[in-house]
Amino acid sequence: MLEPEDRFCDSCGANQVEASEPVAAGQPPTTLQNVLPILKRSKDTIWARVEEARDELFTTLRATCEEEGYEALVIKSGPFIQPAWVKVEAWIPSANGKVSGRAWMTVEIHAKEFHRHPIEYSVAVHDRGWSKSFERLVGFGDYHARQLARFVLGRGPMPPLATMRVRDQTWKFWRPMNSLDVLATDWMGLSPLILFVLGFVVMAKLPILGLLLWTGGGVAVVLLRRRRAPVLSSGKPGAEPRRLHNVDSWQVVISGLGGDADTLLARLLDLMQTPPMDGFESRVERIWAWGLDGIVDREQLVMTLRRGLVFCQIYGYRDELYVGWTSHANSGQWVEFTLARGVDKETRQLVRVNSVERGQQPLTEYDLIDLNCLAEWTHARIVQLARRRMEERQIDQEIDFKIIRGDRPEMGDEEKPTDQIRRGVGQLGRLIRTG
Length: 435
What we know:
17 strands; 32% strand
């Protein structure tokens, strides 16, 4: 018997499980449509495009600073952080070197799903004590980024950003609106208002007709409340937002293997080519942190198993090799909220337009089990690779391979199955005693 195969249904947009064997007469269907109340994941989302815009902006700002002959601070937000942001900061010294003109600029990138302009920008600028912020900008591009970088470096004027604002309040009618682009006018929903206005207009000359129109408006209100509204949603990003809780860790320094950091990392990446368990994913992420005299920029290997994450670091310090990992439980989750309610332009039916925002979900014991499994597997493979490399280099060093156990995060408020059983037994005992 062949294994079931996942398939995506083009007509309904749901995942299906299709069996390869035909269905005999009188038997239940073997094709099950996935109708679980779970948002569909998609890699092609507005949040993915926001991160692409962040990376392009970061590259443009850094290149502009280098073209002007300056090594300025250019940093960006990490993965899965919304809103994404990019920052440029520069201290321009004077001729005597004792006075510096300090300026910085931050650009935030906001996702506006289902809107006419799907991406909005916010810019905050500070120059030697003077500051200015611009909210809800559209049409921000490469030209504006270069001009802002030159302004921070003192090499050019401030670009005109005020004209790029969209309307944030109703009375600012001179600004364009960034309205929802998926809804049409709901004339049926406006029918009660139209009937009430017409009834008021004709009431003086035709009171009976006016009363009939008002009655019709009331009936329309009652009928409109009975309308059903399905949900229009594009799903959620391919990965959850990060709200991490530290759990376990391990690290070691091996003398004589500092030059083998790349070799050890390559061998570990080769092991990731075949996922050891269902739901396992891995990738290399570039991270930065503040140091004593600037930022420290490095790469780390990230392994995930559902809500468990393990960050692995392999760095060489001349002859010394640092190998370590930290495990984290992620309580971050995308949460749905309703943007608007109206008539869909394509289907012409009443819908609720939903999007997602950053939220959190309580951790469970199963999440910690997944994390423990991922951490133990990672630890065993790293220890195996480190020992093998030490044998190849004939390095005799005593190493402590014991994992450093941390505090477990608090579980959610949900009642555990064991507590439900105990409560049920207690209620049964009380019934027996009082029966």
